Protein: Olfactory receptor family 10 subfamily S member 1
Organism: Ailuropoda melanoleuca
Amino acid sequence: MQNPNQTAVSHFFLEGLMYTAEHPSLFFLLFLLIYSITLTGNLLILVTVGSDPHLCSPMYHFLGHLSFLDACLSTVTVPKVMAGLLTVDGKVISFEGCAVQLYCFHFLASTECFLYTLMAYDRYLAICQPLRYPVAMNRRMCAGLAGLTWTVGALHSAIHTSLTFRLPYCCPHRIAYFFCDIPPVLKLACADTTVNELVMLANIGIVAAGCLVLIVVSYVFIVAAVLRIRTAQGRRRAFSTCTSHLTVVLLYYVPPVCIYLQPRSGGAGAGAPAVFYTIITPMLNPFIYTLRNKEVKRALQRLLGRGSRESPAGSPPPLTCAGTLHGPAKKTTIPIAKWGGKIVQGGIGATELPLGHELFSLPSAK
């Protein structure tokens, strides 16, 4: 039976960001620019990964999922913020709309958390266990793991949303925040919120911190394996495939921890870190991944028509493929597997080549 006090609030009023009140038009243009860059960058990465046959390895498969998540995450919050900057009515959100926004936000954010962990595991297998990599991360396994992150994220968000909106809410109905999130919404509840706060802290302690620990452990093994590589070029290539992932992980984890570990803190105080990880980070991720990844940059050039589909003249052959390398080092063979009609091999970078090309591998690092 529905609590009558809960029906006393049919809508909420989003107070927005305090520092935007004096110059709303200027901040509207700023958020519009950020949102446009976010959508353009992430959708461009998504189209590039989906259409370029050279980017068919698991690493780029997961990158496509991340770009889609970032585009959706920005769409959940930014348009409503811009509407509130234009008119007072734009700050009003219905009770049901608030529940939908909270669910979508935590669904996308938690799925991204699990995806970062999966990407770290992918890098661990590629660098630390290259012989197992093509088999362990085949096309079916990648699709299954990616689908699992979406499923767990949906269930995780459903639990938080149901616990939050089962509470009775009554006036005042002003949310001291720029979107519907758990800490500011709980402040308006007319009942004890201890259970909700404990669940939220458990979420940080078990889910988010657990994923972070798995990421850190993966990179401890990765660093140890990379340091055993004798050639400086091999070490640079290995680290280049990991630094971008580590950067976005730090940008993702630090601001939410500052917010959700202090559920009773004021909305204004949490506004700055929230803006960073809900609005700024999705805009930065495409640049972080492309600036340090030559394969993605070449694929973008091919997509935009500014580059040739052939490798540039004088460019060295790929360093991490199946086959043998003759020279001072011993012959090394790494197994291969087909991924969408292309050869994908274990090893650092997990580079792929069209069928029939001559393939090479790094000297064994012992």
